[in-house]
Amino acid sequence: MKKNQLATILLGLSLTACSSIPDTALNTDLNQSACCESIAALSIQPLALDSQQYVILDGNGQTLPLAQNSNEESDRSPAKAYGLPQTAAPFMLTVSAPINNNQVIAPAIAIYDDHWQLVEQYTTEDFHYFTSSLSGIERIEGKFILSTQLNNMAYMVIQHDPQQIGNQLERIHPEQEFAESQNIIGNKRLPLYASLSPVGVVEISTQQHYGNPVVELLSSLTTKDASAAAVSKTAPATASEPISAAHKQAASVDTQSWHYFKQQIDEAMSSGKLKQAVDWANKAESAGHQQAKDYLLDTLAR
Fold first, then answer.
1. Residue 232 above 50 pLDDT?
2. What gap in Å lies between CA 129 and CA 173, rounded to an integer?
3. Can you tell me the distance from the alpha carbon of 61 to that of 25, in angstroms, rounded to the nearest whole number?
4. How far apart are CA 91 and CA 144, in angstroms?
5. Does residue 62 contact residue 79 with C-beta atoms inside 8 Å?
6. Where are the alpha helices (DSSP H) in the chain?
7. What are the tens digits of pLDDT across the range 237-251?
8. In Å, how far from its chain's centre is CA 280?
9. Which of 108, 229, 243, 238 is nearest to 168 (CA)?
10. Helix, strand, coil tally for the chain in percent (to 5)
11. Of 130 and 13, which is predicted with more confidence?
12. Angle, CA 17 vertex, CA 153 and CA 21 arms, to 5°
């Protein structure tokens, strides 16, 4: 499906969490739920503007059957349905999945009209990875600007992405991130991974969008498809696996480090050169620093 430009903006701006993450055991048995057999049968909660909440997606809640071609052991997916706020202006939707005990849910979002016809669909590949030092906890996060007046958007359903279950999300070691922030070459370390799971916790946040011209400018620069979750089918098999050539290059070339790009963005912003700052953010993202636009928006918001 070709995604609408307005509805597929993936910005890195993070909203500050107002409540703590639920600490509860997750029920991985998704086949015991009595509801539901169709999307329209899900109970619907209203999604308020300028709100934040944590939601548990596991076998204790409602589930939906998966497609028949699914390769999962379970043939159901936990599901949560929301009624979208009907406002004339677009609003910003943020969905985050915290990484806990080397596990994170593989989120998927579907937007429907008032007749439950699919309007837009987002998978785990539409989410970015963020370390704990970037405005919150370590997580994967997708940020979208939605206009409910466009294509008659009425409902949102959050499930897991069956195509990603069993895949691995590559993480950044805190010491590696610190070394890059200090513009130094850190110790070589094997990459960290988190397994993408069918159950987990997601944070849902909404924020009114007032047509900020800066946001619109960044929006026009992010229409290309992104695969920011950086998933891999194969995790490292042994502790002796050598560090990749890409990691070696990132550690040895200063102009490819996040610290370098951050410095360029800061200098452009200090000089009032917004377009130049956006260009540097795009270059940083192309170099693998998915937090670049995230950082730029945070800087603009101050």
1. no
2. 13
3. 13
4. 8
5. yes
6. 174-181, 213-220, 245-252, 258-270, 274-286, 292-301
7. 333 334 344 444 444
8. 22
9. 229
10. 25, 25, 50
11. 130
12. 100
| Cβ-contact 286, 261 below 8 angstroms | no
Say how far apart CA 286 and CA 281 lie, in whole Å: 9
* 17 phi/psi in degrees, rounded to 5: -70, 140
Is 128:144 a contact under the CB 8 Å cutoff?
Answer: no
Amino acid at 87: T
Q: Is residue 35 reached through a cis peptide bond, with omega within 30 degrees of 0 on the bond before it? A: no
User: pTM of the predicted model, to two decimals?
Assistant: 0.64
From the CA atom positions of the chain, what is the Rg in Å? Answer: 20
User: If you write DSSP's letter for every residue of 256-301 in order, what string do you get?
Assistant: GSHHHHHHHHHHHHHTT-HHHHHHHHHHHHHTT-TTHHHHHHHHHH
- Residue 302's pLDDT band (cuts 50, 70, 90): low
Q: Please tell me the distance from the alpha carbon of residue 245 to that of residue 193, in angstroms, as a whole number.
A: 18
Tell me the one-letter amino acid at 203.
Answer: E
Q: Find where tokens 């593989």 sit.
A: 106
Paired tokens of 277: 């700052």
Distance CA(246)–CA(230), nearest Å, equals 14
